[in-house]
Specification:
Layout lengths: L10 H4 L5 H30 L3 H5 L9 H36 L15 H6 L7 H14 L2
Helix pairs in contact: 2-4
Length: 146
């Protein structure tokens, strides 16, 4: 990451760029998203990751069933794992945004230190980069083939 400028708070708040009410609004939005995500992750875990082969087949006997069915079940579990890991990353970013609210650095780009636009924060409340820095990051990822 690039050099971080000094924190924009409390000057950031005093200049009217991010008022306390706005921070509270974004905090409530992030907490709601976090609650919903944790609920979805719990449902996913219960529905896909805790299901045994016997349960998924609907078979009460302990005999194995067709290999194609086992392959499909394995693929479904892998897909559930990938979704859970993506949700885990989103949860991490939400928690980091909540930490930045607490630290009074929310709304500050972690790369260049400039304020993140309100429109961007409204669309992606857990944003850590301004749109320009995010575009640069995405272009770098494309160059590296990730």
């Amino acid at each position: 990451m690039g050099k971080r400028r000094k924190s924009l708070c409390p000057e950031f708040l005093r200049k009217g760029k991010m008022k306390k009410k706005e921070l509270e609004k974004f905090e409530a939005l992030l907490l709601e998203k976090r609650k919903k995500l944790i609920s979805e992750m719990g449902h996913l875990k219960k529905a896909a990751l805790e299901m045994t082969l016997k349960d998924s087949a609907g078979d009460i006997s302990s005999y194995s069933y067709h290999m194609a069915d086992q392959g499909t079940d394995a693929m479904e579990r892998e897909k559930a794992f990938l979704l859970a890991s993506k949700d885990g990353r989103l949860l991490y970013h939400i928690d980091e945004a909540l930490r930045r609210i607490k630290d009074k650095t929310y709304g500050e780009c972690l790369e260049c230190g400039k304020p993140i636009s309100r429109a961007r924060l409204e669309a992606v409340p857990h944003a850590r980069l301004c749109i320009n820095c995010k575009e640069k990051e995405e272009k770098e990822k494309l160059k590296q083939g990730r």
